[in-house]
Amino acid sequence: MSKITRMLLVVFIILLAGCNRPQPEPKQLPTDSNIPLAETSTESPVPDATNTSQPADTPQPAAAESDLTPTEPTIDMTQVLKGDLIPIFPSGTDITIHEIHMVSNLAGWAIAVADPDTEHILTTANGGKTWQDVTPPQPLVTGDAGFTTVDMGIWDADSAWVIYAGSDLLWSTKNGGVTWKVVPVVYETLYASMFSVLDVNNAWVFQFLDAGMQKVFTAVNRTSDGGENWELLLDPFTDNTIQSFDKTGAVFINSQYGWLTRDFRGVDPFVHLNLTQDGGFTWEALKIPAPPAVPNVFLEGACGLYDPYLISPGQGFFRLSCLYFENDQRIYQDFLYITSDSGATWNILYAPGGDIYYISDQIMYAVSREIYRSDDGGVNWQLIRTVNWDGHFSFINQDTAWGVAYDPDDDEYALVKTNDGCNSFSIIKPELISSQSIR
Hints:
The chain has helices spanning 3-16, 297-300, and strands at 96-102, 108-113, 120-124, 130-133, 150-154, 160-164, 169-173, 181-184, 192-197, 203-212, 215-223, 231-234, 246-252, 258-263, 272-276, 284-287, 302-312, 315-326, 329-339, 347-351, 355-358, 364-367, 370-374, 382-386, 390-395, 401-407, 412-418, 426-428, 431-433. By secondary structure, it is mainly beta. The chain folds into two domains: 1-12 and 89-244 and 389-439, no CATH class; 245-351, no CATH class. The strands form seven sheets. The protein has a five-stranded mixed sheet, with no helix packed on it. A four-stranded antiparallel sheet has the order 5-6-7-8, with no helix packed on it.
């Protein structure tokens, strides 16, 4: 057990007695305060945001989720690459793609395995027909399942960032994976990470360090030079505003302003959007109104925020996904939340269900086993087609997308592509060719 894990366990034991109780309603800090959000405020609660013609007061920072202030860890940043490195797949290896990120009609990235294996990083230059293994020289870190997963953020065909579960090494490339630069960070990712990429220079990574009883301990690192250096913005020892619940998405519109969404699982009745105005150092909690159709759903159901999308600091979207009971029937219902005044008011629309992919502020897809499209900003939705698999997509325009289709019954994956806006799909059999990666 690592030093960090032992310290986090101490934090966990302290929180254990009260972590399942509903948390207090978010409160204000003065707008001109320099007090970090890890401190507890005693100001009045954040007013509800409502969908009215009279905007509410400007949203204020919220109070911390607890008063816990553990001791700052002392970490040795010296890191030496040692042990066996993840090998490059030889040409002709039979691969299974788990995740795909296309950046043009031809170029893209993927995460893949060779049954079963540690996840590898691949690139394509011909629309997914052939792939090269460009996995960085990461030391093998074998998890309990016998393999290791990786998370990736990408900007274009050249620039990407990756981190492996069980590792404290952040890798970056500026030449499509031919070579990689490594930077050790303070914490070791326990089981997953989440990237948010603004541009070729600015990216954030949320490392999930430990979890249990609604706590998902998180460290946030940022680069402003494309991965040459990473700065630790917050961790469980300096922050207690975003340490609970699963993080489902993060998006930045500039180097300072961003949104973070979480799934509150029906534990916290004060469902809120987290936003930052200082690049991720501190996070405010903006309480959102319940959907008018089910005004008690935050108290009687389980809701989470997903798929954040920003057009400007004042204009953005996210999806609210809720599970509740009505006349003894289990109901799953999604809603699309839209603001044009920084969250002072919200336009709340029904959504068909599933992950939302935004082509623009008007054109978007809702993807589950039923695939819908909206051409008017989510006001109306048209059923495109029904499929018998679960899919995660990478759209490059309103007509063209690649996806990873997964059949949970057979535990099988397939790489698919559409050229007609999800009306039809073709299967691509990926072929692995020789790598040009330099080690």
